[in-house]
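ok, trying the design again with the full structure, not the truncated one.
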């Protein structure tokens, strides 16, 4: 069986089934004021528990991880959340638990409609807060992990961040959840506490019982239920090999990412929050290859000010201490619902009013962000990147607004880096096909393979029914990547990649052979990619790259790589 590998590691243990025990019932109340007092008492108790959890997390894992629970506290203090619950109690004469359920479901539905895995998975924070608040109102305890025996693998529909932090690390060997993704807080925390994890496996709870034997690989997402002895022996062997590999790549911290024949690349990181910076630094990331700024605009009631944005961008630049920080300008639109922007619903938001298209029609919002980025550039090695570019005209229009922002700062004698680099994401086939023209307008390219692939093969990457067609080994994608890199280099600009393909160690040799200059990956993938680069000869990989470009399908490409590149 297979899910999404969320935290690497090999484990064999006994299943411990964690079931959701909250059964919320709706009933009418007689006294609205007393019910609202009861709701506020639940809020106070929940906030006290979260404050204790923040201190525990600081002590057990670290300050940045504790910020997850600070965001939980902010939800409980949010006037809009509190006001909506109170309104439902007053208007409908219903109990607090049901009112909370309806309000939380409203917020979770908003997040669920966003075309971004990271944002979607913030739903877990709302669920965690809701569960805690409802349990306190009902007088129920959460999961009692004290009853777990040594060697357990937790099986659950989902694990909230607060449940993950309370897992007894000395007794639990791993966990598997029916839902979730790689960027959920739970997955991130499992990586930080070094517990193997697999998420998004689908409906398995009905097929399992406590004490079933599980063999799991948190890297590949593969797991077996009650496997035969040869499978267990194979996993025991893989576990020993994995521990050796982990020690080996840790030795790469502080070294350069250079191939055996002397070709040096940069391995940066994709981040969506300042909270991710410690993971970048801890894993020896060589910079920020993609800072997704849309998260600064989410989960609030109004646009962030120039000052708010400046503070965040400056902090990232300072913490990276001169290493490159590529800030992608606002990438929101019809597919990402931000209520205060009143964006229209669209029939096909993937091809709609989003990213640079939105910014060019909302010049004040765009210019405010550009001024904040420019100001922060005085404090580090910041670069600007425009998303979803499809034509030369869009670049020129964006650069014109950037020039206006520069002029306004200059008139105010405000410092900024006068030599700041400006680049674009290549994530639309039209941009790839005219990349020779686009390269004359910018200082660098960054290939966004997630969207480039979905637009090239006409597959909605979030549609499970056709997900097998979304294959990152497709020769069409690889041919476009080759074209982009060649056109960039012909025009003396460097070319990076910030999509999932950059962190696929099977494709790293092909990307090296194609001449990719920069790989931007999740922090946990930095050392794996560096290990791959340092073990390869670029000249040999050039031949392999040409060979796979001549193949017919993704399955052939994968077979070729598995057979010919070790």
């Amino acid at each position: 069986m297979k899910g999404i590998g969320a935290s690497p590691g090999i484990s064999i243990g006994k299943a411990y089934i964690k079931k959701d025990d909250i059964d919320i019932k709706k009933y009418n109340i007689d006294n609205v004021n007393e019910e609202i007092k009861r709701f506020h008492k639940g809020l106070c108790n929940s906030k006290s528990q979260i404050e204790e959890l923040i201190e525990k997390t600081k002590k057990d894992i670290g300050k940045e991880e504790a910020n997850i629970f600070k965001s939980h506290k902010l939800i409980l203090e949010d006037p809009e959340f509190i006001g909506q619950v109170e309104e439902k109690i007053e208007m409908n004469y219903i109990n607090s638990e049901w009112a909370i359920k309806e309000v939380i479901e409203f917020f979770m539905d908003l997040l669920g409609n966003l075309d971004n895995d990271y944002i979607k998975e913030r739903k877990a924070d709302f669920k965690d807060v809701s569960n805690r608040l409802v349990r306190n109102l009902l007088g129920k305890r959460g999961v009692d992990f004290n009853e777990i025996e040594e060697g357990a693998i937790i099986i659950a529909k989902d694990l909230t961040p607060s449940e993950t932090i309370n897992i007894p690390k000395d007794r639990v060997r791993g966990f598997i959840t029916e839902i979730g993704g790689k960027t959920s807080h739970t997955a991130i925390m499992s990586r930080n506490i070094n517990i193997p994890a697999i998420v998004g496996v689908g409906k398995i709870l009905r097929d399992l019982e406590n004490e079933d034997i599980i063999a799991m690989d948190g890297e590949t997402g593969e797991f077996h239920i009650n496997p035969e002895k040869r499978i267990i022996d194979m996993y025991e062997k893989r576990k020993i090999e994995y521990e050796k590999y982990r020690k080996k790549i840790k030795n790469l911290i502080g070294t350069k990412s250079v191939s055996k024949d002397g070709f040096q690349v940069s391995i940066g990181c994709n981040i969506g929050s300042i909270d991710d910076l410690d993971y970048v630094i801890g894993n020896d990331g060589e910079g920020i290859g993609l800072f997704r700024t849309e998260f600064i605009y989410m989960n609030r009631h109004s646009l962030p000010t120039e000052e708010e944005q400046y503070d965040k961008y400056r902090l990232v630049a300072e913490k990276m201490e001169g290493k490159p920080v590529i800030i992608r300008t606002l990438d929101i639109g019809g597919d990402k619902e931000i209520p205060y922007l009143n964006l229209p619903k669209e029939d096909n938001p993937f091809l709609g009013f989003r990213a640079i298209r939105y910014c060019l029609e909302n010049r004040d919002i765009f210019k405010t962000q550009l001024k904040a980025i420019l100001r922060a550039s005085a404090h580090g090695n910041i670069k600007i990147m425009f998303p979803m570019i499809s034509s030369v005209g869009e670049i020129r229009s964006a650069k014109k607004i950037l020039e206006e922002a520069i002029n306004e700062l200059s008139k105010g004698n405000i410092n900024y880096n006068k030599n700041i680099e400006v680049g674009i994401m290549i994530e639309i086939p039209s941009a790839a096909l005219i990349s020779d023209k686009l390269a004359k307008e910018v200082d660098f390219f960054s290939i966004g393979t997630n969207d480039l692939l979905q637009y090239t093969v006409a597959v909605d990457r979030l549609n499970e029914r056709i997900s097998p067609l979304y294959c990152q080994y497709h020769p069409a994608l690889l041919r476009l990547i080759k074209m982009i890199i060649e056109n960039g280099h012909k025009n003396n600009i460097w070319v990076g990649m910030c999509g999932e393909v950059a962190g696929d160690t099977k494709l790293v040799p092909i990307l090296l052979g194609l001449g990719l200059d920069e790989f931007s990956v999740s922090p946990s993938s930095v050392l794996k990619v560096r290990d791959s680069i340092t073990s390869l000869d670029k000249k040999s990989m050039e031949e392999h790259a040409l060979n796979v470009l001549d193949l017919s399908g993704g399955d052939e490409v994968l077979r070729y790589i598995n057979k010919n590149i070790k």
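Keeping the full-length input from now on. DSSP finds 23 helices and 15 strands in the chain.
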